[in-house]
Amino acid sequence: FAGVVIFLALFTIPFWYSQATGDANRKLDIKIAPEAGDECIESTGYMRSKHMDLLNDWRNEVVRQESRVYVSKNGTFDKSLTDTCLEQCHTNKAEFCDECHSYVAVQPDCWDCHNIVEE
Known about the structure:
Structural class: mainly alpha
């Protein structure tokens, strides 16, 4: 019986921790540049689930194939995290990228190469 109690206590620690800290009710509030419109290079749903795949594909295509142009239903874009994503849609890295990555507890390595000058 003690084993079951210990298991349940350990298993439910994340639940109790999030309830105690208030993180359970925290909502993601990210900001997109108004001039970007409702969608960036792809739909919001696609970008939420696939943006890292897209950025990895861009990196590989630019470096290995010298393919620097991305065509979508929303237009033609340079395959550039800095010049396309951060200049056109997500102009404030802290309020968009960092906020979302913190919310889902990931630490992407994009910033190892892409230096962002804080204003």
